[in-house]
Structures are given as C-alpha cells and as structure tokens.
C-alpha cells in the first residue's frame, strides 16, 4: 500500500515542482519572457496554488539563485589557515579555479541571472547582498593572513577584498557568456600572481 503524503510533504513536493519548472523555463526562454502563468502551467498546478508559495517570478528566481549560490559559498567557505605565503597562494589559486569552473558549469542559470539583474530590482538587490557576503568572507581571510604575518598590515582588508572580488566577478561573467579569451588555468595563475604580489609579504 502506497504511503499517504502528509500536508507538509505535499507542500514540499509542490514547491520543488514549481522551482524545477521555473528553472527549465528561465533557461529555455530567459527571465523576461518567462511568466508565472507559464510556470504554473508547466508544473500542472492550479493557478492559485503557486501564489501560496511565491508571489511572483522574482521570488521564484531568488530562491533558485540562493540554491545556486550555495555551491559558490561552499568554495568561499573552504578552510583558509595557511602557515606560509606559498601555502596561501595554493589555497587562493585553488579557490579561483573552483569559482570560475563552477560559473562555467552553471552557465545557463548564470546567464539568466545576468539578464534578470537588469530586469528586476529585487534580483539586482539580492545579487548585491550576495556580493557583500563574498567580500566579507574574503576580508576575513585577508585579516587572518595579516594577523599571522603573511600579508601587509597597512592594507585595508575590506578594500582589497572588494577589488579582488570584482576582478574575479568580471572574469566570471566572461566565462559564463563565453566571451573570455583566456582559459581558466591562465586566469587562475595570473589572478593569483597579481593578488599575491600586491598583498602578501615575500
């Protein structure tokens, strides 16, 4: 006998179905052309049902974005406790490579994000918040390196973190759109060298 789903389990399934269908349509049509009605139709749900979970497509996309960014946060949150400048360089190089590789791998949804930021104040604001989370994490790593005598103490951790993130973000978008003229291996090496030479003590 098939187990009867609880109300909570049904709600979880319905929400997941909406998110799955929304992602499919966003990737197929782009953010602007996709409507909440199309998402509801593909999910096979009653028109009012979707609005129990999301009030509009912006909210749907923000949830997809947060799920996607969880993978990027996993890279950013990797343990950073180097004992030497050489060890720090290896950690940073690995993070840069993983960050750009992940962006390339998830290029379809990332392209939708690029479009959505120009079409939705809500999504653009969420991306700004996400940026700040990454910048804060980088500044924590810089402060660690400074306090352990690996990096120059006169530099402002947040300022350097902001510049470092923006440099990586620029190449991230180029990797996503296929416009980048460099391989990820080249970017990983060159960006790390610039960062290390400017911040760390030889």
UniProtKB/TrEMBL annotation:
InterPro entries: DNA-bd_HTH_TetR-type_CS, EthR_C, Homeodomain-like_sf, HTH-type_Tx_Regulator, HTH_TetR, Tet_transcr_reg_TetR-rel_C_sf. Residues 12-72 form the HTH tetR-type domain. This is TetR/AcrR family transcriptional regulator. Residues 35-54 bind DNA. It holds the Pfam family EthR_C. Keywords: DNA-binding, Repressor. The lineage of its organism: Bacteria, Bacillati, Bacillota, Bacilli, Bacillales. PROSITE patterns: HTH_TETR_1 (PS01081), HTH_TETR_2 (PS50977). The keyword Repeat does not apply. The keyword DNA-binding applies.
